[in-house]
Design goal:
With 622 residues, the protein is mostly helical. It has helices at 48-68, 72-75, 79-108, 114-132, 135-141, 146-152, 162-171, 178-187, 192-205, 219-225, 231-247, 249-269, 277-283, 287-300, 305-315, 340-354, 356-367, 404-423, 427-430, 435-438, 440-456, 460-495, 502-517, 535-539, 545-562, 568-577, 584-588, 598-621; strands at 6-8, 321-322, 371-372, 384-386, 395-397, 521-522. The strands form 2 sheets. The chain has a 4-stranded mixed beta sheet with strand order 1-4-5-3, with helices on one face. The longest helix has 36 residues, at 460-495.
Length: 622
């Protein structure tokens, strides 16, 4: 049972994330920023409604077990009766998702707070216990005879769930019997969930002593130094991060080995052959499609990242970039600080230029405090959009510092939010979008915002800086995410043969980084441990290729939009409204696109190559 969905921004997982306000400008200088009003979920962590809903969920799960266990095959002979059972399941999914969403968002606001951590753990434990009463449900649905189910799905109250049943059928070869599924579910609280929580709380509590700083910094503060205009600060931050990661490397190695083994055990019992098969199934994407994407991106490394970083080294007056120079700003133009009200206007205007309806939906997030924007001690790092449940609305989290990159992140997360709002009518079972398509609206929103800003840039130096920044974001979203995917593949494949030492993990990391970043970047001592803090490796194995999938997909879509493809806006909205009710092939068909074709991915990569071409042409003119 899926309770809640969080789409996390992955624009850069290595050094240009949000940070503490002290790193650039005081938070007060950025204008008034919204903070979450979670009362649409629950008014507080001790609200009586929480205990009431936990009890109600447990009671309803027990009732459903008594009413439906062992009877679903019989109910399937009457589509109307099976529809009642599915609607009961969907309603309970929404209630449990509401509880899970509040606990997760409340915890994200201050992960270092023991009381919030306990609350989050207690709610998670309660929901896990409740969900064990429902394990039989999907297992029994998959035991219904195909012909009987097909006939039932012709009923008017049930046929809208046909895509959900179709996806559920794909899970059948990998499902276990009820006792084993119950054991896996209950043990997850002391297994994967606990190790993930240990990683989260360790990262949130890190205190990093950076040379030149009076007080230790948090992880996000330090990462932000890697995009500082002062090379001394970048170097100091990189060395401090390396020192801190090395001091904790035994713990990070243990967590990585344990979770990789946990996944191997699950994969073996569920008959998944390849290390990424379970992710492909969850994403509703075929392995050959992902393989085509990976092959296309890796083949393009010399034409994209290698070529760009060679240019950037020249811009910075270096033969080679140091690893801490990768996200350095260009010397031609200092980054201006963009206050929150201006950031709001920039994004909403860009959205409005595409479709007023999109801007109208996005504006609700600002007006109703569905965004938590300021940096706060202990707050979860990075940015994400949590869809929560269809009966409520999404919430966006940021760590806003006024950089142009932060404006792009705002556009990205609001894209997720708009997508999640549009898909709400599909209901709890059909609204969640596979990760490969979940990035579509977010990356498209970013592109709209970037193009709007670029069109207003009159100064050649400003245009160059903006293009370079966008190229870097696209490299981080495509090239680096595929490199991360390759790293994960090697780690999980080798883990099947035994534990990996810290040294071996470091070696694998350096291999994929050298391949993807190219000869223009010198990976300095200490960089070998930077694999250890990437959250996606811990939270969602093989999640990362979804970013590259989404970026290349959006590049192809935006190309059609720029060419005035007939009915583009209407088709685009229909795609977002579909949520998870359609396969990617169905959603792309109206645009004449096919992800199985390697040329599809090459078309997306050519957008990135074209921007690098433009930067090269600017250099020649100068």
């Amino acid at each position: 049972m899926r309770c809640a969905n969080i789409s996390v921004s992955g624009l850069d997982l290595d050094g240009a994330a949000a940070a503490d306000a002290a790193t650039t400008t005081a938070a007060s200088d950025l204008g008034a920023m919204p903070e979450w009003d979670l009362s649409d979920l629950y008014t507080s962590s001790d609200a009586p409604e929480i205990e009431h809903d936990k009890a109600a969920a447990a009671k309803e799960a027990a009732r459903m077990k008594a009413a439906y266990q062992g009877k679903l095959a019989g109910l399937a002979k009457d589509g109307a009766q099976l529809a009642v059972a599915i609607k009961d399941y969907e309603k309970l999914s929404d209630l449990m998702g509401k509880l899970a969403s509040y606990a997760g968002l409340y915890y994200a606001q201050k992960q270092a707070d023991p009381a919030r951590a306990k609350f989050y753990g207690d709610v998670s434990e309660s929901l896990t216990k409740t969900s064990t009463d429902l394990i039989f449900f999907e297992l029994e649905l998959n035991q219904i005879d195909d012909a009987v189910l097909s006939a039932a799905l012709t009923h008017k109250d049930l046929k809208r769930y046909a895509p959900w049943f179709h996806d559920l059928r794909k899970e059948k070869p990998h499902q276990l019997d009820e006792k084993l599924e119950t054991l896996f579910t209950e043990k997850s609280q002391t297994g994967r969930a606990s190790w993930t929580r240990l990683f989260n709380e360790t990262m949130s509590s890190l205190k990093i002593q950076v040379k030149g700083e009076k007080e230790p910094l948090g992880l996000e503060q330090t990462l932000n130094r890697l995009s500082d205009k002062d090379e001394k600060k970048r170097k100091a931050a990189s060395e401090a991060l390396a020192k801190t990661f090395k001091a904790n490397i035994s713990l990070f190695t243990l967590i990585t080995n344990t979770l990789a083994k946990d996944k191997e055990i699950s994969d073996r019992w569920r008959h998944f052959t390849d290390v990424a098969d379970s992710r492909h199934l969850a994403n509703r994407v075929e392995a050959p499609v992902v393989d085509a994407l990976v092959a296309s991106v890796r083949a393009a490394y010399p034409r994209t990242s290698h070529r760009y970083y060679k240019m950037k080294a020249k811009w910075l007056g270096k033969k080679k970039l140091n690893s801490w120079d990768r996200n350095a700003p260009l010397p031609e133009k200092p980054e201006r600080v963009i206050k929150w009200p201006e950031a709001e206007k920039i994004v909403l205007d860009a959205y409005k230029g595409f479709a007023p309806e999109m801007a109208g939906i996005a504006k609700e997030f600002f007006d109703k405090n569905w965004i938590d924007a300021p940096v706060k001690p202990g707050k979860a790092p990075g940015a994400f959009s949590a869809s929560t449940v269809p009966s409520v609305h999404p919430y966006v989290m940021m760590n806003y510092l006024g950089k142009p990159r932060d404006v792009m992140t705002l556009a990205h997360e609001l894209g997720h939010g708009v997508h999640q709002m549009l898909a709400r009518d599909q209901g709890p079972l059909l609204a969640p979008t596979p990760l490969t398509l979940a990035e579509t609206a977010s990356v498209f929103g970013e592109m709209l915002t970037f193009r709007a800003l670029l069109s207003e840039a009159k100064d050649k130096r400003e245009r160059k800086a903006m293009l370079a920044s966008k190229v870097e974001d696209m490299i981080n979203t495509v090239v680096r995410q595929i490199a991360f995917y390759c790293f994960e593949r090697k780690v999980h494949e080798e883990r099947r043969k035994g534990e990996l030492t810290s040294e071996r993990l470091n070696e694998i990391w350096m291999e994929v980084q050298r391949e993807s970043l190219g000869p223009a970047i010198e990976l300095k001592p200490g960089y070998e441990v930077f694999w250890s803090y990437i959250p996606h490796f811990i939270h969602s194995p093989f999640y990362v290729y979804a970013y590259a999938f989404g970026d290349c997909l959006v590049n192809s879509l935006y190309g059609l939009y720029a060419e005035a493809h007939p009915g583009f806006v209407g088709k685009y909205f229909e795609m977002l409204k579909a949520g998870g009710s359609k396969h990617h092939s169905e959603l792309l068909a109206p645009f004449g696109l096919d992800a199985r074709d390697p040329e599809f991915w090459n078309k997306g990569l050519k957008v990135l190559e074209g921007m690098i071409d433009e930067l090269e042409a600017m250099d020649k003119v100068v």
